[in-house]
Amino acid sequence: MTDVLKCSSLVKAYGRTEAVKSLNLNLNEHTIYGLLGRNGAGKTTLLDMITGGLFPDGGEIRVHGQALRRGEVPRQTCYVREKNFYPGGAKVGEVLNMASTFYPDWDSALAERLLGEFKLNSRKKMRQLSRGMESLVGNIVGLASRAPLTIFDEPVLGLDVLMRERFYRVLLEDYAEYPRTILLSTHLIDEIATVVERVYIMESGDILLNEEVEQIRERAYLVNGSGGAVEAFTSGRRVLYRENYGSHTIAALYGEIGAEERREAQSRGIEFDGLPLQKFFAYLIEGGQEHE
User: Fold this and answer.
1) Are strands 198-203 and 32-36 parallel, antiparallel or unpaired?
2) Which residues pair with 158 in a beta bridge?
3) 5, 75 in Cβ contact below 8 A?
4) Do residue 174 and residue 30 come from a single domain?
5) Distances (CA, A) of 286 to 17, 200, 283
6) What is the CATH number of the domain that holds 121?
7) N or C: which end of the chain has fewer CB within 10 A?
8) Do residues 7 and 110 share a domain?
9) What's the pLDDT tens digit per position in 172-227?
10) Is 211 part of a structural domain of the chain?
11) What is the extent of the structural domain holding 141?
């Protein structure tokens, strides 16, 4: 598949603090990705470099095959920031009109339809909007831009559950009709699990995991049983979390397990269960913990 974005050995430091550490990331065309990480993981620094707001101290960024030069904003890219600094006195409709001048493939009909879908008044001033409504204005810009590379940073910030679900539904419907590369940066892995095809999990300026969502579902699991049986079964495996309750142990693991291995473990009293994605994410970035 064609690379829409390719980051090679990216480095960015603020004084003695490395915000991004020799990071590699590839986004292919016509794919929805998730960029996951807690606050301070380096996600925003990475996105600012990708979109020309910051210049890396080392490494290279190529967008649509072209190396990104210092001070250059990549073409055919729309970046919807977590905090967009729209003029407070501007009306919603005026913000959308301004945005349309930056994107050659802008879809005015879609923008108009989404105003109704998200229950936004085009005549309202930006300073009158709640945090969630501001997010929706940015999301309309991202969707209506039709940019081949569209990046959303925390797109559902301030939205209630129903409106978050509505945004994801609209995004998938539009993507099905107009496929492009979309990157959703968030910490809500459970919510985007049915939306994204592949995730990059970021922590301390580097990528901890780059995997398809379905493979994570298949490889992340919980085991519980007697301490001795679980200890023997988990030996040599990737243990994300372990907790002991007297003689009983629960462990979260990541990796492949064969059918024969599972049957043998079950014969020793070990039970298997799925690991919720949000817990998998939390355990992974903690680097493994053990509790008595």
Assistant:
1) parallel
2) none
3) no
4) yes
5) 20, 16, 5
6) 3.40.50.300
7) C
8) yes
9) 999 999 999 999 998 888 889 899 999 999 999 999 999 999 999 999 999 999 99
10) no
11) 3-204
